Amino acid sequence: MVNIQLEAFGEIFESESAKSRFLNRNYKCPFDERIEMCEKPNRGELRYGNCSARVGDYKRIICPRRFYERNYKVLNDVKNFIWGEERRARAYDELRLQIRTSSGDSFNYGTIDWILVLEDEDFDFIGVEVQADSTTSTGKFKTGIEDLLSGQLKTNYGFGLNTLASFKGFIPQFIFKGQLFDDWKKPYVAIMQDELWEIFVSKFRIRYRKIRDYTTQTFLFFIYKLEYNSERGKYELILDNVYSSRWIDILFAFAVEEELLLDYSQIKEIIKRKMERYSPILRL
Q1: What is the pLDDT of residue 100?
Q2: pLDDT per residue over 232-257, tens digit each?
Q3: Is the bond leading into 41 cis (omega within 30 degrees of zero)?
């Protein structure tokens, strides 16, 4: 099984361009102009630049900034699909939804990755969230980089995908903030990769439909493929499909799993192992 970094700072990981990046400590993110250098990891001098990873047959985007290629084209895709190419809009990042209640308490709904606002007289807006996958054993990326630079690159570095953890963070937040957009009747968009979407819809009971033209839908999923462009020698994002759903369907998707990963016999074994290894804190 192949477990290896797929891209480094937008370059093919095994390429001379990627090696040059590491050797010259050129850690600038090629996709997101808002940051000076790659933030992964957020400690030490070395930056991994791990935009994506190959795990078995999967090519998975593991950094949300990877979606911002070609000057944040995904945001243009959203604007064009919902409002059309002729209308102009402004994009603002990280809109915090914090309010103060009548009793004086502060309540925070969280932060929206992007808010798109029309530039004409008709005030209108779109909320956008960007969802990537995550990995386990991320320190293995450092080993791969060291082997790349020493000419001893292997094919398996022992990290894995942590997809369920990605969903665990994404779905509750999307539901929590989504209830606001459902009430406002404004579009709320999630951008994700096709591989992640396929797992999402197979793992959870979610009703959705493919749409070609926007009408009044609130919950939209813009799904992208990560494909290799042989002329450029790089991977690039291709908009594959747009799907719509409803807030209540997404709520059920989180409440009811299609196939539970932990059944009764398994939880019994986990509890028994706990009992065998540890003494109880107290007896009641």
Answers
A1: 77
A2: 999 999 999 999 998 888 887 666 55
A3: yes
The chain-wide mean pLDDT, for the chain, equals 90
pLDDT of residue 256: 58
Residue 125 Rama label (left phi>0; alpha psi -120 to 50; beta)? beta
Residue 95, classed as helix, strand or coil, is strand
DSSP string, 101-113: -TTS-EEEEEEEE
Non-local CB neighbours of 4 within 8 Å, separated by 6+ positions: 13, 53, 54, 144, 153, 154, 155, 156, 157
How many Å apart are CA 242 and CA 222, to the nearest integer?
5
Counting DSSP H helices and E strands in the chain, the numbers are 7, 14
Residues of the chain with pLDDT under 50: none
Inter-residue contact 197 to 167 (CB < 8 Å) = no
Distance between CA atoms of residues 81 and 6, nearest Å: 30
Ordered alpha helix ranges (H), the chain: 16-23, 69-83, 139-150, 163-184, 194-203, 247-255, 264-277
Burial class (CB in 10 A: 0-12, 13-18, 19+), 123: exposed
Q: Has this prediction a pTM greater than 0.90? A: no
Rounded distance between C-alpha atoms, residue 57 and residue 268, angstroms: 33
Please name the residues in contact with 221: beta carbons below 8 A apart, sequence gap of 6 or more: 189, 190, 191, 192, 197, 208, 242, 243, 244, 245
Per the CB < 8 A criterion, the answer to whether 134 and 166 are in contact is yes
d(CA 180, CA 187): 10
